């Protein structure tokens, strides 16, 4: 059997399969995934799932009947081990193989491991998959003192979830502020104050020297400043790495992910990649990026699926990210790196504000806390190359939609 084979039941893998089918791809489609679960939502794993507001069943994206109706075969709990580009086959665990005409790699990313003594002790957890979340949730029930290593999205979301469960939480972040690579100092400071107000201890500029234990279980963390923190559970969230080894072994061009064009096509014209495992030239950042977000995974996979079906439609979406912590919804549109000016709209004190970022007078990104309307407007402005002035942003009476109406000549 030939046709389209998809490696990975991630957002990218599933979206690519569906987009190819919906675009008229009539050949067989098979999705191979090393996880045994039906394709599921991942963002809630660090939030609602840990706090018992979501279950394994409620996180399922689509049931098996849906995929059957689409003519998409799911092979779950089986790892793809190799890509034989010459014979156009992928090798599976157990030494079986699948032939393909087109191949889409949507293998996502994996957690960067903490390389310190004691990192292999029981009670040291990571969070990327459903199995990780199940194990972390079980550990949280009995834990009383939790150390979160890393003040990024996953670390802060888990810290907030654990705090809601009444646990004592300490966040260790090696940088000088939270989410240093993603947001401005204004947003970092707001997040720091919010976590402190909820009883979470945050130690900035702090590293882990070793993890200490007894009888194979973690008992404390030794820090670079000589402090020793008691802990019976550690969540490590120090970034992710692309699952691109299978592509490297097959000789595809890779550099911090599988290099793809704006149609998701790799250096092999019949092999595509999308999502966390892929790197692409992003027109908004004007640089090569590997983005870990649901939006990127889905939109990039849509472009790949269309190309697989013989259509044309490049990936040109404005990057978007979000994070829910306590009652704050942080939304990000665009890439704010190398900004040279910023303007604040709304009230930081009220927890409802946006930061607009500029580079050489051009609007490049917006971070918003509990101001979804700003995000909707910003998405369209950045995509359309529309840049309100910083003074217009600071003026609460100025209607952002007026710029869109003027540019489009229609109501919004």
Description:
With 412 residues, the chain is of the alpha/beta class. It folds into three domains: 4-110 and 241-308, FAD/NAD(P)-binding domain (3-Layer(bba) Sandwich); 113-236, FAD/NAD(P)-binding domain; 327-408, FAD/NAD-linked reductase, C-terminal dimerisation domain (Enolase-like, domain 1), CATH 3.30.390. Helices cover 25% and strands 30% of the residues. The protein has ten helices and 26 strands. The strands form seven sheets. The chain has a five-stranded parallel beta sheet. Helix 1 runs parallel beside helix 7 (294-308). The mean pLDDT is 95.
Category from helices, strands and their pairing: alpha/beta
- Which runs of at least 5 residues are low in confidence (pLDDT < 50)? none
The top level CATH class name of the largest domain: Alpha Beta
Mean pLDDT equals 95
Q: How far apart are the termini?
A: 49 Å
- Estimate the helix proportion, in percent: 25-40%
Oligomer: single chain
Q: Shape, please?
A: globular
The number of E-state strands comes to 26
The number of helical elements comes to: 10
Q: Return the domain count.
A: 3
* CATH architecture annotation of the largest domain: 3-Layer(bba) Sandwich
Strand adjacency order, main sheet: 3-2-1-7-19
Assigned CATH superfamily of the largest domain = FAD/NAD(P)-binding domain
Radius of gyration: 22 Å
Largest sheet: 5 strands, parallel
Strand content: 25-35%
Examine the coordinates and then state which fold CATH places here, giving the name of the CATH topology of the largest domain.
FAD/NAD(P)-binding domain
């Amino acid at each position: 059997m030939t046709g389209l084979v998809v490696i990975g039941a991630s957002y990218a893998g599933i979206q690519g399969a569906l987009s190819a089918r919906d675009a008229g791809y009539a050949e067989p489609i098979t999705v191979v995934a090393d996880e045994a679960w039906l394709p599921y939502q991942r963002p809630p794993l660090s939030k609602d799932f840990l706090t018992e507001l979501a279950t394994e069943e409620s996180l399922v994206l689509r049931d098996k009947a849906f995929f059957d109706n689409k003519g998409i075969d799911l092979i779950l709990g089986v790892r793809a081990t190799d890509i034989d580009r010459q014979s156009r086959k992928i090798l599976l665990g157990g030494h079986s193989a699948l032939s393909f005409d087109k191949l889409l790699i949507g293998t996502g990313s994996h957690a960067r491991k903490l390389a310190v003594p004691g990192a292999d002790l029981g009670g040291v957890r990571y969070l990327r998959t459903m199995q990780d979340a199940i194990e972390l949730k079980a550990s949280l029930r009995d834990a009383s003192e939790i150390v979160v290593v890393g003040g990024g999205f996953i670390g802060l979301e888990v810290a907030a979830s654990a705090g809601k469960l009444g646990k004592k939480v300490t966040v260790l972040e090696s940088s000088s502020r939270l989410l240093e690579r993603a947001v401005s100092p204004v947003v970092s400071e707001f997040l720091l104050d919010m976590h402190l107000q909820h009883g979470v201890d945050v130690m900035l500029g702090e590293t882990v020297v070793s993890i200490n234990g007894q009888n194979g279980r973690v008992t404390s963390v030794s820090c670079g400043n000589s402090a020793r923190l008691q802990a019976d559970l550690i969540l490590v969230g120090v970034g992710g790495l692309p699952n691109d080894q299978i592509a490297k072994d097959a000789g595809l061009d890779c550099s911090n992910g599988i290099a793809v064009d704006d149609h998701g096509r790799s250096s092999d014209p019949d092999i595509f990649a999308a999502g966390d495992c892929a790197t692409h030239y992003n027109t908004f950042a004007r640089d090569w990026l590997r983005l870990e977000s649901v939006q990127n995974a889905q939109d990039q996979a849509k472009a790949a699926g269309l190309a697989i079906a013989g259509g044309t439609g490049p990936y040109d979406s404005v990057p978007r990210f979000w994070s829910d912590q306590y009652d704050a919804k942080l939304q990000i549109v665009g890439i704010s790196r190398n900004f040279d000016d910023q303007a604040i709209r709304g009230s930081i004190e009220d927890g409802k504000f946006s930061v607009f970022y500029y580079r050489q007078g051009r609007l490049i990104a917006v971070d918003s806390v509990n101001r979804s309307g700003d995000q909707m407007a910003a998405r369209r402005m950045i995509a359309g190359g529309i840049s309100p002035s910083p003074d217009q942003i600071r003026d609460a009476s100025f209607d952002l939609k007026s710029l869109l109406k003027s540019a489009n000549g229609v109501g919004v």
